[in-house]
Write a sequence for this structure.
């Protein structure tokens, strides 16, 4: 599984629908795209939501990002991520 960072921004309408039920729906959408949520944080600043999510690949991450936006009214910017240890092995040339 590949790791992705999803930064979400609420629309004015989506703020009015914040609820535990919507969180359950987000989990269902991610699982339906073959992914799993590692953790989600409410944040201040440029993003309102920060999620660490795992998907089999980029296609599934893209589908989830669009489906979440469409169903929940939260726009997401989705970025692939590697752990620092994995990055060091990759760039440092060590197996």
């Amino acid at each position: 599984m590949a790791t992705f960072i999803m930064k979400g921004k609420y629309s004015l309408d989506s703020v009015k629908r914040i609820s535990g039920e919507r969180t359950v729906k987000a989990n269902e959408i991610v699982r339906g795209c073959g992914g799993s949520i590692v953790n989600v944080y409410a944040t201040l600043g440029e993003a309102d939501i920060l999620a660490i999510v795992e998907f089999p690949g980029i296609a599934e991450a893209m589908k989830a990002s669009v489906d979440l936006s469409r169903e929940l009214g939260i726009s997401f910017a989705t970025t692939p991520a590697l752990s620092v240890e994995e990055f060091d092995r990759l760039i440092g040339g060590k197996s």
About this structure: The chain is about 45% helix and 35% strand. Residues 58-72 form the longest helix (15 residues).
